[in-house]
Amino acid sequence: MKKLITTALTAGVLATAASVASAGEIAVIVKTTNSSFWQNVNKGATAAIEGHAEHTMTFNGPASESAINDQVALVENAINRGVAGIVLAPSDPESLAPVVKRAYESGIPVAIIDSALAEGNDQYYQTFLSTDNCAAGQQAAAMMIEDAGSTGKVAVMSYVAGVGSEVGRVGCFVEYLSENSDIEVVGPFYSQSQMATALNQTTDILAANGDLIGIFGANEPTAIGMGRAIEQAGKAGQLTAIGFDGNVDLQDMVKSGVLLATAVQGSFQMGELGVNAIADILAGNSVTDFIDTGVVMVTKENIDTPVAQNVLY
Q: Is the peptide bond before 221 cis (omega within 30 degrees of 0)?
């Protein structure tokens, strides 16, 4: 999926609208505003809009990632007020598809970030910006095997079942373990991206599985809850723990040795490149239909290097 697309190559309604929508609001709508990860997306979007004086940018999202209907309503509101373009991180691949189709039919270009929509909807948005979540899951699994060994139990702490990023990230982590080791996977368990839920789940799993050799926390709030449970159980350093995302809490856990590593996405880049992509589309320029925003495995050894510092937040 590497073809070039332009507004002129999309449906006539979008091409016509884009030709006249030379200025206006770019609405950035994320899964929740209550997360350092998504606030870093906001920082990237804010940085990008400074280079597009003809446009304004708004940033919004529901109170939690599980408030899917609230996110649908935010997109509907953006369409109703006639925004020039939308940058959207869909919380649910199915539920957000109809409203993205409506944006397309209204002549509003959409850049999807972080998580894909359900298959069959790619004609309704113009580009997809994301970490290659499958590759990231495989990297985490390879590091797990290298550090913990190829036999034993590894628990998987996930977030919202069926979300595009989760399917690739957790699915490929589990698949890599099964194809490259004799590790038994415990889980996945779903925190609904709630730190307290992840903490309680991890506490129970650690108590019930004293022989765990490793554990994987697949997004920011899940990994924080997982790490805190490991600390409270006094098991830091006794099993291989790998997190995902890179806020201050997770950085501290890497530095203290609670986590061997955390896989950090380019969240700033999602916001920055997403807004730039919409601005390009509105200007009639070409964009690729997939933009890889990357991932860095941050460890105690590399956390202070420029490569890690450029993605941490």
A: no
How far apart are alpha carbons 240 and 148 in whole angstroms? 6
Show the domains of the chain with their CATH numbers.
4-131+266-294 (3.40.50.2300), 133-264 (3.40.50.2300)
3-state secondary structure the chain: CCCEECHHHCCHHHHHHHHHCCCEEEEEECCCCCCHHHHHHHHHHHHHHCCCCCEEEEEECCCCCCCHHHHHHHHHHHHHCCCCEEEECCCCCCCCHHHHHHHHHCCCCEEEECCCCCCCCHHHCCEEEECCHHHHHHHHHHHHHHHHCCEEEEEEEECCCCCHHHHHHHHHHHHHHHHHCEEEEEEEEECCCCHHHHHHHHHHHHHHCCCEEEEEECCHHHHHHHHHHHHHCCCCCCCEEEEECCCHHHHHHHHHCCCCEEEEECHHHHHHHHHHHHHHHHCCCCEECEEECCEEEEECCCCCCHHHHCCCC
pLDDT digits (tens, 9 = 90+) for 131-178: 999 999 999 999 999 999 999 999 999 999 999 899 999 999 999 999
- The pLDDT tens digits for 230-239 are 999 999 999 9
Structure confidence at residue 14 (pLDDT):
46
For residue 216, what are the CA distances in angstroms to 9, 25, 143, 271, 306?
A: 42, 39, 11, 26, 25
Cα torsion 225, 230, 234, 235 to 10°: value is -170
For 148, phi then psi, to 5°, come to -95, -20
